[in-house]
Amino acid sequence: MKHALITGITGQDGSYLAELLLDKGYEVYGLMRRKSVVDYGNVDHIKDKIHFIYADMTDQTSLIHAMTISQADEVYNLAAQSFVATSWEQPLATAEIDAIGVTNMLEAIRVVKPEAHFYQASTSEMFGLVQAIPQCETTPFYPRSPYGVAKLYGHWITKNYRESYNLFACSGILFNHESERRGKEFVTRKITNAVARIKQGVQDCVELGNLDSKRDWGHSKDYVHAMWLMLQQDTPDDYVIATNETRTVREFVDTAFACAGIEIEWSGEGVNETGTDKATGKVVVKVNPEFFRPAEVDILLGDPSKAEKTLGWKREIPFQELVSRMVKNDMELVAKEIAFSRL
User: Which residues make up the CATH 3.90.25.10 domain(s) of the chain?
Assistant: First the structure.
């Protein structure tokens, strides 16, 4: 039986990965930061099947302790300060977790079990001001946020430990991937949650930032399978995981509202653009400049051909189904909130 250690196990990706590994017969260990109130997040439904270890990415001693307890054959480093907007507000904390934290984990592996296979969660945000379209493993990086910069350090230190110490260390350069378990602070879940609340009459409209930003969106469940495949190879390498399709935030909004039976009509330009419910004439989408990034990433479009060829990976959940799942989930959650408020 293989042992796996997952950092960031309570998040979206961590929960889907934990389910995948449990189904494959792994003994799963998960890192948790100690809080005054225990929060199992997205793994609450499988918490009894997971061995939890209290540790912190900024505390190398605790990571060495976690490696010693778990004796992990595979380590998946998904822990991060992952909200891009917050990285401008907390740049040093982002660097400590997303950059130095990766080094701490690699050192813990090197000290305790250097034969372990390591996965680092890199990100398409490292491409930032893109130098080529689409982006692949050899496209130059140009990060446009403290988050992207910190993740780029994590990416390169992983490659450096692979080449310096012969560690089996891989980076997955994952493009935007969403799911029903995505946090509500992220724009996709903010949209689907708002759609559900507007549809059920408990919210008037949703305010968003740059509607013209283009992203390559897939489903988290497909992407964690790619993580696992990377660590099953004979040699470690880095891979872009994406759909090779890009859509604007505006298109995501249109699709989400359509899943709830609402057709959006757009009018105006720039900060004055609005989206109106065609059936009622009510404005349900507004642009708020407060949500603009200090440095924008205009377009991300990934080329996953290397992963498809080498790993045999392919996505199973298309864009329309991804959005539909998210809207359906939020419709159910909002309905429960309404029912509970009436008790």
Answer: 187-214+247-296+318-342
| Rounded CA separation 295/136 (Å) | 22
Query: Under CATH, to which class is 187-214+247-296+318-342 assigned?
Result: alpha beta
Q: Is 142 a catalytic residue?
A: no
> How far, in Å, are 145, 148, 157, 176, 213 from residue 94 at the CA level?
10, 10, 16, 19, 23
27 catalytic? Reply is no
| The one catalytic residue among 147, 161, 223, 239 | 147
| 343 pLDDT more than 80 | no
- CATH for 3-178+217-241, among 3.40.50.720, 2.40.160.20, 3.40.190.170, 3.40.462.10? 3.40.50.720
Q: DSSP secondary-structure letter at 297?
A: -
Is 235 an active-site residue?
Answer: no
3-state SS assignment for residue 301:
coil
Residues 21-75 pLDDT 10s? 999 999 999 999 988 888 999 999 999 999 999 999 999 999 999 999 999 999 9
Q: Is the peptide bond before 236 cis (omega within 30 degrees of 0)?
A: no
